[in-house]
Design a protein that fits this description.
Elements (H helix, E strand, L loop, with lengths): L11 H5 L6 E6 L5 E2 L14 E6 L2 E10 L11 E8 L6 E6 L12 E9 L2 E8 L2
Parallel strand pairs: 6-8
Antiparallel strand pairs: 1-2, 1-3, 4-5, 4-7, 5-6, 7-8
Length: 131
């Protein structure tokens, strides 16, 4: 089983937004900086007024890797993990598993869209290619 993140005041919107099919990113109310991972204080201007906003849920592959090593019993390999520059959230990259893709076809710059895998109260973001 996949380990679950601890849900906190600052990260619950990110980990549960998938229930509504939304990728939620924290933004500073003062300077409008996108903040990921979510934090209680803006790292750019130190403002403590943070709001969560839905972003388009698309982006482009910044980097990726294909894993062939089973790190845990019953882990299915190979699988890909991509770091995606998130549209609508400048400077934010979300790292997640790539699904519904031929692993040999993933490329830098490839357009992806978010989908979610639900485990208990957590909705893990996953990336799939835009077709």
């Amino acid at each position: 089983m996949r380990p679950l993140p601890e849900l906190t005041a600052e990260n619950t919107a990110f980990w549960t937004g998938g229930a509504d099919g939304k990728l939620i990113i924290a933004f500073c109310k003062d300077c409008a900086a996108a903040i990921h991972p979510p934090q209680l204080v803006c790292p750019k201007c130190w403002c403590e007024e943070i709001e969560n906003k839905s972003v388009p849920g698309t982006g482009s592959v910044y980097s990726y890797t294909v894993n062939h090593q089973p790190w845990a019993p019953d882990m299915k390999v190979p699988f890909a993990i991509a770091v995606v520059d998130v549209d609508g959230a400048p400077g934010v990259r979300v790292t997640a598993e790539v699904i519904n893709a031929d692993l040999d076809s993933i490329t830098i710059g490839q357009q992806m869209r978010v989908c979610f895998m639900n485990v208990d109260d957590v909705w893990f973001p996953q990336w799939e290619p835009v077709r």
